[in-house]
Amino acid sequence: MTVEARPRFIDVALEFSPAPMGRTRRQGRFSGEAFREDLLKPALRISDIVVVDLDGTSGLSTGFLDEGIAGIVRDGTIVEPEFWRRVKIISTRDPLVINDIRVLVSSATRAVAA
Amino acid sequence: MPDSEIALKRIDQKARARLARLRRRRGAKRRAQRLRALRRRAENWRRTPPRAELRAEAGHGPESSARLQRVTVKAPRKISLASNYDDLMDFFAIVRRVAFRDERPVLIDLRDCMDISPETALLLTAEFHRIRYHRGSGSVTGISPRADEPRRILHNLGFFDALDLVDPLQMPDDLNRFQISTGVSLDGTSLDAVSDNFAHALGLTGEQRLRVQTALFEALENASEHAYFDPDKLTYPAELGRWWVCAVTFPDTRKAYLLAADLGMSIPTSLPESVKRKGADRVAALAAKMQSKAAQTEDERLLCAAFDDGVTRRADGRGGRGLGKMAALADEFNTGFLSVWSGNASAWVNKGATEIRSAPLSRRFHGTYVFWHLGMETAQ
Do B214 and A28 touch (CB under 8 A)? Predict the structure, then answer.
């Protein structure tokens, strides 16, 4: 499958859920695992750059971010430097979420290395 | 005595003796007949169960009817987790024993109940919901309180609806003050109403509102992830994943309480297992936290460690998960308080406190209960 240069935008609130919650599919329909497997990974397969827009969502829990976004580093889909090159996070309403994701991705990298 | 009388007397004696012999022979005969009849009946009984047993197998009879007899359990006059913990736990223990061990229908008598705190009313609803889920809708019923205030609190929390009880005095819903939500799977949109109510009462907007909502979502996420992951360790049957949340708000005084409960494994039971799954560095961090307070029981140390679980505290104040985030937010408001009951311990932190305080519980709390208060009123 060819990877497009044109970025793929994912508006989480509109395309997934305005209030995603939970880590695994077992915990709920709009979990981090569902987001990672159904939206983020397919987008990375078809596009070199994926923009994840978190504005419009509410209550982004650590579990959702860890499983849904940092999870692609933890499961070996992508390594951390490539993650930051290919995945762009937009969160103007709560900019500190990006700090949270940075910590979670680092933690995922350490877990993979261990 | 003349000879004739002696002779008559002798004949009479002989006749009586003969009669006695005849009676003895007849008695023996009858006794033998009776014995043979008893032996025949015993033989028949061995081959066929008696009528009483047949009735019991068919669902009649004294043994099976006893199992259908409803047991009345009288609720304490004061139902409050904070001020009447022992009586309340004893009450729950009796109800659970009747429902799950004895497998008999339960009638909860709340008539003499004069005081129910809203946080404990949520627990009541959760316990009875669990019994109905596992034992059927007829397995637990109740008699509502005579006093108006406890009945109003139960009504607004959906207690009567959960037990299919008809409130004889139809009360208007006070939905501005109570908003209960329950579910098995995590659905942020269903919790929006609860968190909106909570935020509205406090006048929260923007980032602070988001952080309150995030703390709530994380607390429930933790409950969903850890409380039910090993059903074999549950003391009582539980609907896997079930949680209850309620926001009790007072917009006029700008204070709100968020109550959250689950009936799964307690935090002291689940935390060591969940930390093991997250890696050796987390295990080491937990061990370090537990060593710092040797005077406490193990459950107390584990519960206090749960307040600090997750990402190390950062300069932006965003560290921690679930309980840690809630505790941090309690510090940012004019009044704030977070308390947790779980396992054999309770832990709490007040606004401005430098450390988490804890105490052992006299009765085990089967599950986890979180009581979170935030207020904008000026502390006195």
Answer: no
In A, minimum Cα distance to B310 occurs at A62
Backbone φ and ψ of B95, nearest 5° = -60, -45
B37 within 8 A of B73, measured Cβ to Cβ: no
Sign of CA dihedral B352, B358, B364, B367: positive
Cβ <8 Å between A19 and B217: yes
**B192 contacts in A (CB within 8 Å)?**
19, 58
Mean pLDDT value of segment A45-56: 94
pLDDT tens, B243-268? 988 888 888 888 888 889 999 999 88
Q: CB-based contacts of B209: which residues, under 8 Å, 6+ apart?
A: B199
Range from A44-58, A75-89, B174-188, B220-234 carrying the lowest mean pLDDT: B174-188
Q: How confident is the model at residue B313 (pLDDT cuts 50, 70, 90)?
A: very low
Q: Where are the beta strands (DSSP E) in B94-232?
A: 106-109, 115-116, 140-143, 178-183
Could you tell me the end-to-end alpha-carbon distance of chain A, in angstroms, rounded to an integer?
32
Residues 44-103 of chain A with CB under 8 A from chain B are 58-64, 93-94, 96, 99-100, 103
Strand order in the sheet with B106-109: B71-74, B106-109, B140-143
Between CA B286 and CA B263 the distance in angstroms is 24
Cα(B151)–Cα(B153) distance, integer angstroms: 5
Least confident of A62-71, B306-315, B341-350: B306-315
Q: Which of B214, B224, B316 sits opposite A27 (nearest CB)?
A: B224
Is the ipTM higher than 0.90? The answer is no
Chain A closest CA to B321's CA: distance in Å? Answer: 7
> How far is the C-alpha of A87 from the C-alpha of A108, rounded, in Å?
15
Among the partner residues B186, B189, B311, nearest to A18 by beta-carbon distance: B189
Structure tokens at B182: 């329950």
- The position carrying tokens 């205030």 is B149
Report d(CA A94, CA A21) in Å as an integer. 17
Q: What is the pLDDT of residues A52-105, one digit of tens each?
A: 999 989 878 888 999 999 999 999 999 999 999 999 999 998 888 899 899 999
Paired tokens of B369? 């209960």
Q: Cα(B175)–Cα(B177) distance, rounded to whole angstroms?
A: 5
More confident residue, B143 or B277: B143
d(CA B214, CA B312): 17
Q: Are B323 and B216 in contact (CB under 8 A)?
A: no
pTM over 0.95: no
Q: How far is A1 from chain B (nearest CA, A)?
A: 35
